[in-house]
Design goal:
This protein is an alpha+beta fold and 294 residues long. It is built from 12 helices and 14 strands. The protein has a 5-stranded antiparallel β-sheet with strand order 10-11-14-13-12, covered by helices on one side. The protein has a 4-stranded mixed β-sheet with strand order 3-9-8-7. The chain has a 3-stranded mixed β-sheet with strand order 4-5-6. A hairpin with a 2-residue loop joins strand 13 and strand 14. Helix 3 packs antiparallel against helix 4.
Length: 294
């Protein structure tokens, strides 16, 4: 248990993060410090306005952008940071067990949703550690494994849940992974604890991270992108700042901005980029070329 209280704007939320991460470097990232209870005054009011005012007045080493990000947790929703269903790695429970085991072991992800019939019918979540343990118990024979017994019960959360509420819920349940659904119960994507933490401290890279799938850098400086790539992932991978408040995927952004479903070879310029439709299948934009505007 951490002895002491935080002094500074957004302290209450940072305490939650510290309880999770238990690392002093995170405190330093926010320009905050631990002090003894006897010397601490009352915690400041937990308001977005106070946090943002503190961020404006903060010294350079106090990372004002991160203080503002703390304040934004209450205003942003899980749908803003989730992995969209089109980019979500999942498993069809009706596939042969051997194929499922191989896919999970080869995947860079620790947890994968298990569905039957359609993606909107998620019946469980398989943790790679549980699968490996089960394999060990049956002599590494996948045919002897019942995946439904290994899978844990899926946790569904509304897409309108605020990031602050979801962060608190993750901590209460000691969970890291949730399925995001809309008001009709249809799956929209998934959200992880890391997704929310990264909204505050920036990208958390590790040895298991992989490049964004469906994104290819060309020799001429342009980028070829699958239409299903989430805008948020593209922004992070390429350090862009395309808006994602009206659309989740890059194809959705083009459709929103043009108010149409463009034909192949049509080109448009907005948000400082040139978008060229390379491939369209029926009413879906499946591939785009994007280059900077000179």
């Amino acid at each position: 248990m951490i002895e002491g209280v935080l002094i500074g704007a957004g302290g209450a939320i940072v305490v939650v993060l510290l309880t999770l991460l238990l690392r002093r470097p995170l405190l330093a990232a926010f320009g905050l410090k631990l002090v003894g209870k006897d010397s601490a005054g009352p915690l400041p009011a937990e308001t977005n306005g106070a946090a943002r005012e503190s961020a404006r007045d903060a010294a350079p080493d106090q990372k004002p952008d991160r203080l503002a990000a703390l304040a934004d947790l209450r205003e942003r929703e899980v749908s803003d940071v989730m992995v969209h269903r089109t980019a979500m790695r999942s498993i069809n429970a009706d596939n042969p067990t051997e194929a499922i085991v191989r896919e999970i072991i080869q995947s860079p992800h620790t947890r994968m949703p298990l569905w039957r019939g359609s993606l909107d019918n998620i019946v469980g979540v398989i943790h790679a550690k549980d699968l490996l343990r089960a394999l060990s118990e049956v002599g590494n024979d996948p045919s002897q494994i019942d995946l439904t017994k290994i899978a844990t019960k899926p946790w569904f959360v509304p897409d309108t849940t605020s990031l602050q509420d979801q962060l608190n819920a993750f901590l209460r349940r000691k969970a890291h992974f949730a399925i995001v659904v809309d008001e009709y119960g249809e799956v929209e994507g998934l959200v992880t604890l890391e997704d929310i933490i990264e909204e505050i401290v920036g990208d958390i890279a590790d040895e298991h991270d992989i490049d964004v799938q469906g994104v290819k850098q060309e020799a001429d400086g342009s980028v070829v992108v699958d239409g299903s790539v989430p805008i948020r992932d593209l922004n992070r991978a390429l350090d862009w700042n395309l808006p994602d408040d009206e659309a989740v995927t890059i194809a959705g952004l083009v459709i929103h901005e043009t108010q149409s479903i463009p034909e192949e070879k049509q080109a448009f310029t907005f948000h400082g980029k040139r978008f060229i439709v390379m491939k369209r299948e029926k009413n879906r934009i499946t591939r785009l070329r994007i280059r900077g505007v000179v």
